[in-house]
Amino acid sequence: MKRIIAIGSDHAGVEYKAYLMKKLKKMGFEVVNFGTDSSTSVDYPDFAHPVAQMVADGKADKGVLVCGSGNGVCMTANKHEGVRAALCWNVDVATVVRQHNDANVICMPARFVSKVTAGKMLDAFMSTAFEGGRHQNRIDKISC
Q: Which CATH architecture has domain 4-139?
């Protein structure tokens, strides 16, 4: 069974998204690209919502979002029930949000991390398992 990853970015994250898509495909994932594929200014919610909805509906295993600060896409994605989007800026954070928070969408700030760091964060996020245990009790309390 092929694992599916939904990905999206605004204009600030276009180059990073292309780079991350190549990495995901090399890892054997099927990638669903919600755009944008242009550096022309766009509104990040137009791309974050479909990524988050695909994760919320169980049609994608995880999501990847990129914008200038990472915050806009993260706030947007977290409006969706069942989505636990996490803003990451280094490999340690990308690892712990999987281990402790069972994050299912990683959000990256293209203007504040290098492509190499973004790639390493993606590797960590995709390869790290949720620890469960005491963390599950906390996850169960997130939804309103």
A: 3-Layer(aba) Sandwich (3.40)
Catalytic residue among 11, 67, 80, 107: 67
Q: Which one from 11, 74, 80, 100 is the annotated catalytic residue? A: 100
Q: Using 50, 70 and 90 to split pLDDT, how confident is the model at 110?
A: very high
CA distances from 72 to 6, 49, 78, 84, 110 (A): 17, 11, 10, 14, 12
Based on the residue annotation, tell me whether 100 is a catalytic residue of this protein.
Answer: yes
The answer to whether 99 and 64 are in contact (CB under 8 A) is no
Q: Tell me: the pLDDT tens digits for 36-86?
A: 999 999 999 999 999 999 999 999 999 999 999 999 999 999 999 999 999
**Residue 89's Cα: distance from chain center in Å?**
12
The answer to whether 74 is a known catalytic residue is no
Q: Where are the domains of the chain?
A: 4-139
> What per-residue confidence (pLDDT) applies to 144?
82
The pLDDT of residue 23:
98
